[in-house]
Structures are given as structure tokens and as C-alpha cells.
Design brief:
Layout lengths: L2 E6 L3 H12 L3 E6 L5 H7 L4 E5 L6 H11 L6 E5 L4 H9 L4 E4 L4 H16 L12 E4 L2 E4 L4 E4 L2 E3 L3 H12 L4 E3 H9 L6 H16 L9 E4 L3 E4 L10 H14 L1
Parallel strand pairs: 1-2, 1-3, 3-4, 4-5
Antiparallel strand pairs: 6-7, 7-8, 8-9, 10-12, 11-12
């Protein structure tokens, strides 16, 4: 049986070129111009994957994604965006997207990413156990996204909403190096003078609750000149060579 994909994008030319290309690789493609119709469409037909335009009118792309995940629908979703910058990408991934691709599209890249997402989805647990995927363990801790609770050896830890959201961002993207500005904007919204300071306080509070020695954190580590990184196994993070070069270049520009 051929793989079936639903492309949700109002750009008719993009849908046609993408559909023609994917169909030459044994992928059956159907299209939908409006994300507001996505849930109704999925009630009648279930494709293997959805490619969803981020910039639907009125933000309907992200709204549709959020509604799918809130209803428990775990169909794989790849988001498309005019600009796949870090903040947009993180927001989309946080809301449950499986991958993100920026426009203009490289059709071969789309094919590769579709195959990669479908491979990951193929190893997922059955639908009857999908709720378990909302519980993520790291060390002696477990974060339950649906109940918005964190447990340490089965004992609950009380976190504020913002502390929980920050930990959720870290846990969902382990070993990702976040700039302070990226995290601050995700947590506090558009830029203002208090963002960075507020983020640092939030990280400090979170460390008090989940680190054995908050003064020498192992889980939420600070990378000087870059930001923060979540290391689930608690090993000391060593920047890759390209990150060292980037830091040196940043320091040179700042002089």
C-alpha cells in the first residue's frame, strides 16, 4: 500500500509541485487549502502524515496542530514556514510538530524528512499506549505533560506554570543549545529589558528543585557565551568544535 500524505497549504502551485514530486516516489498526495478543515477531514480519512503550513490565515496552522494534539491525535505532522527561525521552530515543536521545514522548499529535502518522520512513527507504540508517551523520564525524575506534574522517585515536585514550561522545553529537546534570548522570548513573549534577567531567575529556581548540587548543575548546564543546554544523563557537556568556533567569533565581534 502506498504511503498517503495530506498537504495543507493555500499555495496551489506549491501543492501541485510537491504532490507531483512525491507521487513519483510512490507517495499518494491529497491537498487541503484550509487548516480549519483539517480535523473534519481526518474524521473521514486518515493519511500516514500531514504536511501543514504554519502561516495559515489567522494562525490556523498552529491552532489546528494544537487541537490535534489536545484531542490525543498523534498523527505525524511536518510544519512548513516562510522562515524556519529558531523561535518559530521551537514553538511548533513544543506544540507537537514532528519536524519543521522552511520555504522555499527543497523537494528532495522534503522527501528525506518525510521518510525520516515516518520511520520514527513506525517504531512508535500502539495507539492504546499513546498516553504513556506524555511521560518523559530523566534520571530519578519523570515529567508528565498531560497532568503537568514532575515526580522525583514517584514523589511530586511542586512547580509553577513557568517553571514547568521551561522544564518541558528542555526535556523535549535534550542536548539542544538554547540561546538565552530564544528561551526568554518563549517564556516571556516579545523582547523587553526584563527578559534575560527573568529567565536567569527561572533557571535558578528550577535548578534548586531538580539538581543535586544547584551551584554545580549537571542537568541544566550553562554554556558560557551561548546559553543553556539540558543534559539528561548529567554528564559534563563539551561543546563541539563548530560551537567553539562560533563562540570565538561572537567574542571577536563583541570587541
Amino acid at each position: 500500500m502506498a504511503t498517503r500524505i495530506l498537504v495543507v497549504d493555500r499555495n496551489v502551485e506549491l501543492c501541485k509541485s510537491l504532490g507531483d514530486f512525491l507521487e513519483r516516489h510512490d507517495i499518494e498526495v491529497s491537498t487541503l487549502p484550509n487548516a480549519g478543515l483539517l480535523e473534519r477531514c481526518l474524521e473521514h480519512s486518515t493519511p500516514d502524515l500531514v504536511i501543514l503550513d504554519h502561516m495559515q490565515p489567522g494562525g490556523e496552522g498552529l491552532t489546528a496542530l494544537g487541537n490535534l494534539r489536545a484531542s490525543g491525535n498523534e498523527i505525524p505532522v511536518i510544519m512548513l514556514a516562510e522562515s524556519a527561525d529558531d523561535v518559530d521552530r521551537i514553538i511548533g515543536l513544543e506544540m507537537g510538530a514532528d519536524d519543521y521545514i522552511g520555504k522555499p522548499l527543497n523537494l528532495r529535502e522534503v522527501l528525506a524528512r518525510v521518510r525520516a518522520v515516518l520511520r520514527r512513527a513506525g517504531t512508535a507504540r500502539p495507539v492504546s499506549a499513546l498516553h504513556e508517551s506524555w511521560r518523559v523520564a530523566f534520571g530519578p525524575f519523570a515529567l508528565d505533560i498531560r497532568s503537568r506534574m514532575v515526580h522525583h522517585d514517584e514523589q511530586p515536585i511542586m512547580l509553577s506554570d513557568r517553571e514547568f514550561e521551561l522544564l518541558r522545553i528542555f526535556v523535549n529537546q535534550p542536548m539542544r543549545l538554547f540561546k538565552r534570548e530564544q528561551l526568554a522570548e518563549l517564556m516571556f513573549g516579545p523582547k523587553d529589558d526584563r527578559m534575560a534577567r527573568g529567565l536567569d531567575v527561572l533557571v535558578w529556581r528550577l535548578r534548586q528543585m531538580i539538581e543535586v548540587r544547584p551551584s554545580t548543575p549537571k542537568l541544566i548546564q550553562t554554556i558560557r557565551g551561548h546559553g543553556y543546554i539540558f543534559v539528561p544523563d548529567g554528564e559534563q557537556y563539551v561543546p563541539r568544535p563548530r560551537e567553539v568556533v562560533a563562540r570565538v567569533m561572537d567574542e571577536q565581534r563583541a570587541r
